[in-house]
C-alpha cells in the first residue's frame, strides 16, 4: 500500500479552505483562482 | 465494535497501467494497492480494526465511523459555501462592454444585445459596490476579478480604472487582489500585456478557433487577424502567463495541427499552456442532443490528450486534476457576481445581455428574486446523489442541471477524471506504508 495523495477523515475539513477551490473545472485556463495561499 | 465502522461511499477502486488504486473522492486520498490488497478490499463488506492497513484507510477517510453521513456533509458544505456568510474570497466577472472586433459563428452573446460600454457613473458604482461588499466581510483575504466581454481589450481604460481603484482598496485593507482575462488576443500587444501584469492580471485565457482557414471562417476574421494574434502570443508569452483555449466541435485534427504550430513552429513549448474546449450550442434546448455532443467532445478530448502525450511536453497541457469541490461554479455563490456594462448582476457570464437573468444591479443591490433563489433551492437529481463522484462533480454546471442537461455523458466523464488524476500523479511520488 502506497499513499500517493493524503486524505483525511470527513469531519476534518476546515471551512476556511473551501472557497478557494470553488472553480469551474471546464475552464482550466482560469487557474489563478486556486492560488490563494 | 464489529459494526462501528463502514467503508466510505466515495471509495473508487480502479485499475490503471497494470496497477490497482483506491481513490476517495471526498477526502482526495489516492492509494496504490497491491493485487492482494485490492482483492481484500473488494471482498470485505464490514471493515473492522483487524483489517490489514485499517489505520491507514481510516486516516485517509476510506473507512469512516458508522454514524457519519458523508452525503449530507457534501450537500451541507455546498449550501454553506453558496451562502457565503463570511467569505475569505470574493469573485467578480466584469464585462466593461459588449462590443467585439470579431463575429464568431458560435458566439452565445450574438443577437442578444446592442453594443454597450460602461459609463463613468457605472464604473464608480461597480467599484463602490465591490468595496462595500468587501467591507461587510471581515474574513476576506482575496478579491478576484475576471475580465470578460465582448472583447475586454477594447476597453483598456475601464479595466485600468476599476483595477486601480480595487487594488488601492485591497492594499489599504491588506487583502490580496488578483485578476484574469478572457480575450481573443487581437489587441494583446506587449505594452498591453505589461499593463495587464501591473494590474495583477495573472492569467490570460486566449480563445482560438483553429488553424488559419478555420480561424478566419469561424471568427469571420481576416488572415491578417490570425497572423497578428499569433504574433501577439509569441511576443507576450514571456510577459504574462497565456493559456490558449482551442475551441473545437468534435474533430481534433485541426486542434492538433494548431497545437503543433504553437508549440513547435512558434517555439512556445513550455511557454504557454493549451487545452481544447467544447463549443456548445447555447440555443439548443434538447438535453439529449447536447449530451450526445458532449459525449463526442469527450471522445475527441481523449484522442487529443493521447496525441498530446505523444508529441508535446506535459507542462504545456492545461488541465485541472479532479479534487473535492464545494460548489460547481464561483458565480452561483451569493456574494460573487457577473457584472454587465450597465451594472446589472448575473449568476453566469453566459447570461450577459439577458434581462430575464438579472438578479440585481450595482445601483440597487440584490433583488433576491426567483431567478436568484433557484440556485439555493436547487436539489441534485437522484442520479447524482447516488454517484461516487459527487464530491468532485456536484452535478456539473448548475444551470445545465436546472435545464435538465444532467445526462452529460457521466461514464465518459468518470473515466476522464481517472485519466487526469493519473496524469497529475505520473511524477513518481508518495510514501510506502
Topology of this structure?
The complex is a heterodimer of chains A (37) and B (433).
Chain A: E1 2-5
Chain B: E1 5-7, E2 11-16, E3 19-24, E4 30-33, H1 35-42, H2 54-59, E5 63-65, H3 70-83, E6 89-94, H4 120-135, E7 142-147, H5 156-173, E8 176-183, H6 190-198, E9 201-208, H7 212-219, H8 223-236, E10 242-248, H9 253-265, E11 273-278, H10 287-311, E12 337-339, E13 344-346, E14 360-361, E15 365-366, H11 370-377, H12 382-385, H13 390-393, H14 398-402, H15 410-424, E16 431-432
Parallel strand pairs in B: 6-7, 6-12, 7-8, 8-9, 9-10, 10-11
Antiparallel strand pairs in B: 1-5, 2-3, 3-4, 12-13, 13-14, 14-15
Helix pairs in contact in B: 4-5, 7-8, 9-10
Strand order of the largest sheet of chain B: 11-10-9-8-7-6-12-13-14-15
Strand content of chain B: 15-25%
Q: Share of helix among residues of chain B?
A: 25-40%
Q: Give the CA-based shape of chain A.
A: extended
Major β-sheet annotation of chain B: 10 strands, mixed
Could you state the order of secondary-structure elements of chain A as H and E?
E
Total DSSP E strands of chain A: 1
Terminal CA distance of chain B: 25 Å
Amino acid at each position: 500500500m502506497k499513499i500517493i495523495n493524503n486524505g483525511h477523515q470527513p469531519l476534518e475539513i476546515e471551512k476556511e479552505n473551501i472557497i478557494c477551490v470553488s472553480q469551474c473545472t471546464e475552464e482550466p485556463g482560469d487557474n489563478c483562482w486556486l492560488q490563494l495561499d | 465494535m464489529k459494526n462501528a465502522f463502514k467503508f466510505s461511499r466515495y471509495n473508487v477502486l480502479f485499475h490503471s497501467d497494470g496497477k490497482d488504486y483506491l481513490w476517495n473522492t471526498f477526502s482526495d486520498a489516492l492509494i496504490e494497492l497491491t493485487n492482494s490488497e485490492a482483492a481484500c478490499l473488494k471482498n470485505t463488506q464490514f471493515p473492522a480494526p483487524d483489517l490489514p492497513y485499517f489505520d491507514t484507510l481510516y486516516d485517509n477517510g476510506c473507512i469512516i465511523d458508522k454514524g457519519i453521513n458523508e452525503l449530507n456533509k457534501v450537500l451541507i458544505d455546498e449550501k454553506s459555501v453558496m451562502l457565503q456568510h463570511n467569505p475569505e474570497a470574493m469573485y467578480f466577472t466584469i464585462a466593461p462592454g459588449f462590443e467585439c472586433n470579431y463575429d464568431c459563428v458560435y458566439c452565445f452573446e450574438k443577437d442578444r444585445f446592442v453594443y454597450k460600454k460602461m459609463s463613468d457613473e457605472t464604473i464608480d458604482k461597480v467599484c463602490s459596490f465591490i468595496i462595500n461588499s468587501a467591507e461587510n466581510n471581515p474574513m476576506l483575504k482575496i478579491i478576484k476579478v475576471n475580465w470578460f466581454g465582448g472583447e475586454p481589450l477594447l476597453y483598456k481604460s475601464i479595466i485600468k480604472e476599476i483595477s486601480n481603484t480595487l487594488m488601492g482598496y485591497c492594499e489599504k485593507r491588506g487583502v490580496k487582489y488578483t485578476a484574469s482575462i478572457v480575450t481573443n488576443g487581437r489587441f494583446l500587444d506587449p505594452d498591453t500585456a505589461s499593463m495587464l501584469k501591473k494590474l495583477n492580471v495573472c492569467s490570460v485565457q486566449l480563445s482560438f478557433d483553429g488553424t488559419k482557414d478555420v480561424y478566419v471562417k469561424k471568427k469571420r476574421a481576416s488572415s491578417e487577424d490570425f497572423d497578428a494574434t499569433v504574433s501577439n502570443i509569441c511576443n507576450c508569452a514571456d510577459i504574462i502567463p497565456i493559456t490558449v483555449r482551442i475551441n473545437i466541435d468534435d474533430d481534433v485534427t485541426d486542434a492538433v495541427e494548431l497545437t503543433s504550430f504553437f508549440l513547435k513552429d512558434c517555439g512556445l513549448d513550455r511557454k504557454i499552456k493549451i487545452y481544447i474546449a467544447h463549443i456548445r450550442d447555447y440555443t439548443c434546448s434538447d438535453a439529449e442532443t447536447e449530451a450526445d455532443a458532449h459525449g463526442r467532445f469527450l471522445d475527441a478530448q481523449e484522442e487529443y490528450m493521447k496525441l498530446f502525450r505523444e508529441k508535446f511536453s506535459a507542462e504545456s497541457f492545461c488541465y485541472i486534476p479532479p479534487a473535492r469541490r464545494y460548489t460547481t461554479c464561483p458565480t452561483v455563490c451569493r456574494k460573487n457576481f457577473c457584472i454587465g456594462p450597465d451594472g446589472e448582476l448575473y449568476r453566469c457570464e453566459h447570461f450577459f445581455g439577458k434581462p430575464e437573468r438579472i438578479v440585481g444591479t450595482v445601483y440597487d443591490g440584490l433583488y433576491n428574486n426567483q431567478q436568484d433563489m433557484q440556485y439555493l433551492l436547487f436539489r441534485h437529481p437522484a442520479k447524482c446523489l447516488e454517484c461516487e463522484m459527487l464530491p468532485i462533480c456536484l452535478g456539473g454546471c448548475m444551470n445545465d442541471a436546472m435545464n435538465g442537461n444532467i445526462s452529460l455523458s457521466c461514464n465518459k466523464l468518470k473515466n476522464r477524471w481517472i485519466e487526469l488524476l493519473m496524469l497529475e500523479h505520473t511524477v513518481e511520488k508518495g510514501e510506502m506504508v
